[in-house]
Amino acid sequence: MKKLSVLILLLLIIGFTSCDNSDGYVAEVGTGTLYKFIEKGDGKVQGPDEVMLVQMENVIGDSVLMRTMTENGLAMTSDQGPPIITSILKMVAEGDSVHIKMSAVDYSMATRTPMVLLDDTTEMVVMKIRITKVMNQEEYLAKMETEDRMLVKNQSMADQTIIENYIAENNLDAQRTEEGLYYVIDKKGKGRKPVQGESVSVNYVVRLMDGTFIDSSDAALSKENGKFSPGRTYGPYKFALGTRAVIRGWDLGIALISKGTKAKLLVPSELGYGQAVRSGSGIPANAVLVFEVELVEIGE
């Protein structure tokens, strides 16, 4: 009788861990999370002080909710996140591909995705995960630092080519600073140049390299280009030079011109807004910008 009871218990456990296997999914014992391995690699499981590089695509029906966009993917640890996900991550190794299935409600709670963003909350969400690499944290940080430097270098070279082509096409007499800023003096003023820390006031117009109007301190010009903001106070932009109150391209460029000077600043992305996308501004990531500036006041 005792042996029969043990056998029944084992059968119940096997049945529980194998539920919903009509499509190959099984339930993890601790959390009941449904998962199935698509591919088993031969790499190592994440250990202490290590991270996993993960490629991920989350779908509901035919809709993609989230997809990693970079070569490295996400850096994760097996204890990072809610148990419904980490219970499965603890089982995977480098080279594995696994799918995790959950209800829309569970997905919303696990990822903090608002339910309104899910097309059909009656469908199940599938998280498609592939472990591309397991490495220690120091190795990972060194890898990211090296790749970041390479990205900056490549973007800098691309920006330089864009600016130099623009200069040639528009027959501009431009000068280049050692930092990579290009500037053109359109009208030389008679005043002095500002020094670091001084207050300066600057009229400006900013455009993308293709001429797309972005912003201006001039109200009439903003209206003309459909960018006027009624609640805004227009006029020269005032800031303290060299205090990082503005993009670096401005700190460098305004320091080069004297009061009354009108100039163009051709600002590479590294000296502008970099990889950031400025929501609502019209400035995309890695944008090279053309500023038409006039230094109207110093120290007032």
Give descriptors for this structure.
300 residues; alpha+beta; Chitinase A, domain 3; seven-stranded antiparallel β-sheet; elongated
Walk me through what this model shows:
It is a single chain. This protein is an alpha+beta fold. The protein has two domains: 115 residues, Roll (Chitinase A, domain 3), CATH 3.10.50; 144 residues, Chitinase A, domain 3 (Roll). Strands 1, 2, 3, 4, 5, 6 and 7 form a seven-stranded antiparallel β-sheet that branches. Strands 8, 9, 10, 11, 12, 13 and 14 form a seven-stranded antiparallel β-sheet that branches. It is elongated. The N and C termini lie far apart (96 Å).
Quick recap of the structure?
The protein has 300 residues and is of the alpha+beta class.
CATH architectural category of the largest domain: Roll
CATH class of the largest domain: Alpha Beta
Oligomerization: single chain
Number of helices: 6
Q: Work out the count of structural domains.
A: 2
Structural class: alpha+beta
The number of E-state strands comes to: 14
Q: What's the main sheet like?
A: 7 strands, antiparallel
Order of helices and strands: HEEEEEHEHEHEEEEHEHEE
| 3D shape | elongated
Distance between the termini: 96 Å
Helix content estimate: 25-40%
Mean pLDDT: 87
The proportion of residues in beta strands is 25-35%
Which stretches are poorly predicted, pLDDT < 50 over at least 5 residues?
1-20
Give me the Rg, rounded: 28 Å
Enter the CATH topology name of the largest domain: Chitinase A, domain 3
